[in-house]
Every structure is written in C-alpha cells, then in structure tokens.
C-alpha cells in the first residue's frame, strides 16, 4: 500500500484519482494528517464510512513511533528517538525558548560527513530520510503540543539534526515547502533555518529557489588545514569556496548567514584563530554563533574554560563581528546530535 504521509495536496489529488473524488477531499485528508493528528482514515469523520474503508485498503499514513524520550530537568528541552517502519530511528529535539517553541529535525539516519566533534557520524549513515519522514518529526511534536492544551505550537524549525541536509536536497526542499503550506503548519520561510557543513553546489542552488530560509554554515575553523582536520568534507569543498557560496546566498536572499563555530579547548579557540576568523568574515552580512563543545566521550575533545569562551567572544565583538554564544539546552539529556541514537545502537 502507498504511504501518503508527506504528499502535497496536488500529489494527493493525483493519488486519489482512481476513486473519482472531488478535489477538495485531498485537502481534507491533508488537514487530518498534518493538523489533526490522524494516524488512519478511521479518524477522518467528515468522510463517509464506505470511503474510509476503501482508502484504508489502498493507502497508509506513515507515522513513526516514539522509541525513547528524554526530558531535561528544567523542562525546557525534550529529545525524542523516533522509529520508522523499517526500524530506522532518528532524533528530534523540542526546545521551549523564550520566543516560542523551536524544533530541530534530522534529515538522514546517521551521517557520513565524519566531523571530528560529532556523535552523529560515529556509526556512519544508514540512509536518507524521505520528505514524509522529515515532516513527521515536526508533526509528532506539533500534535504533542496541541494535546497539552496550552495553545502552543511549533514556531521555528531548525534543520540541523543528524545528517547533512544538502546531501538529501530534494527531500529536504520538499519538507521546507510543506512546512510553509497552510494545510500543514503554515510556517513562514523566515522561521526555518537550514544548517550545512558546506556543500557548495547545493548552496548556490538553494539561493536560487526563491525561499528565503535562513542559512547556517558549520565553519568551526577559520583556515583550510585546521578545518580539514575537523571536517573532512572541507577537502572536497574548500573553505574559501564555502564562504564565497555563503556570501552569495546572503546577497541573493538578503538574509544574514550564521556561521556556527564550535569552540574546542586549545584546538580552535586561540588568538590566532580569532584573528583569522575576523579577517575571513569582515564585511559580510553574517554573524557568528559560538558553541562551546558538548563533549562526546569517543572524541576526546574538551570544552574551553569560561574565561577562554569570554575572551574569544569579546575579541570578535571588538573587531565588529556580530557574535552570540549559544545558550545551552538539554546537556543533561545528551541533546547533542546522535547521542541518544548511538546509545540504542550500542545497546
């Protein structure tokens, strides 16, 4: 049977053609799936019983099951391990921010980018996620928030969970477009952020899509050799090309690019790196998000002292680089990408 979760209204209309239904039925079904928590056609009470039975024999509504859930002690962060029908599991995080509810979704099961500081890559990549599987992470959390009865919803989405989004380009783009539809979550494109390790051709392609989502670039080092050590993909797409593509994205979309910079003690947090970072980014429509590393035991990389973090931040600020230090959320529940999934794989 065909899984229809993740289809647009237009795609649903095409799938429903054998049933000779009016077009508006596709929108009703979409709203049930994406806004009202339907897991099967039996839930769809504005369809006739006969039609529900017929559709149940032809289609399934693929929804993951929650394999594990961890809640931070402060109640602000919840991490879910969601399992799809083939047993593949991915992590999704809900962060209750002062400005609203933000969720972080995964686009691949695992990751093969090989970044030295990341847990997601320890087991390699199992496979790409489909558009529906990426979307289902957002819908599961949206359903949960609605069930809590406090009138809360998903306000922002960051595509920076496990995987490299631009290596699963078409499915990720389909997910972004669906999030924007009024029969799904109706999110503004400006409420969506995509993070990439720097897949240069797709960065240029994304700039031409006409969807002004925010772009974050995982930089983590300001010069070629060190970045290649931390991020092997840098050997294929060199630092200078990544920054040029990011500058192009900002120029085309008029959206400020964020450079993510994980601070690692005595690796990339010294004066030399700070000076090189200023030189690299001066004059760009960009900001830097400093992220003190969330240590991964297998990686043996340490978090800098508070004094070193403060010094690095103040150096950038003094040299007119827009900078923030990421507010930590969920450290007590291993909210860094890949840690919960790895616990289950290793178990």
Automatic annotation (TrEMBL):
[4Fe-4S] cluster binds at residues 111, 115, 118. It is found in: Cytoplasm. Its cofactor is [4Fe-4S] cluster. One of its GO terms (molecular function) is metal ion binding. It is an enzyme of class 2 (transferase). InterPro entries: Aldolase_TIM, Methyltransferase_A, RlmN_N, RNA_MTrfase_RlmN, rRNA_lsu_MTrfase_RlmN/Cfr, rSAM, rSAM_sf. Specifically methylates position 2 of adenine 2503 in 23S rRNA and position 2 of adenine 37 in tRNAs. Its EC number is 2.1.1.192. Coiled coil: none annotated. It comes from the Bacteria. It comes from Mitsuokella multacida. Keywords: 4Fe-4S, Cytoplasm, Disulfide bond, Iron, Iron-sulfur, Metal-binding, Methyltransferase, rRNA processing, S-adenosyl-L-methionine, Transferase, tRNA processing. S-adenosyl-L-methionine binds at residues 163-164, 195, 218-220, 294. The active site is at 91 (proton acceptor), 337 (s-methylcysteine intermediate). This is Probable dual-specificity RNA methyltransferase RlmN. Pfam families: Radical_SAM, RlmN_N. Belongs to the radical SAM superfamily. RlmN family. Reaction proceeds by a ping-pong mechanism involving intermediate methylation of a conserved cysteine residue. One of its GO terms (biological process) is tRNA methylation. Residues 97-332 form the Radical SAM core domain. It catalyses: adenosine(2503) in 23S rRNA + 2 reduced [2Fe-2S]-[ferredoxin] + 2 S-adenosyl-L-methionine = 2-methyladenosine(2503) in 23S rRNA + 5'-deoxyadenosine + L-methionine + 2 oxidized [2Fe-2S]-[ferredoxin] + S-adenosyl-L-homocysteine; adenosine(37) in tRNA + 2 reduced [2Fe-2S]-[ferredoxin] + 2 S-adenosyl-L-methionine = 2-methyladenosine(37) in tRNA + 5'-deoxyadenosine + L-methionine + 2 oxidized [2Fe-2S]-[ferredoxin] + S-adenosyl-L-homocysteine. PANTHER family: 23S RRNA METHYLTRANSFERASE, RADICAL SAM CORE DOMAIN-CONTAINING PROTEIN. Binds 1 [4Fe-4S] cluster. The cluster is coordinated with 3 cysteines and an exchangeable S-adenosyl-L-methionine. One of its GO terms (cellular component) is cytoplasm. Its main location: cytoplasm.
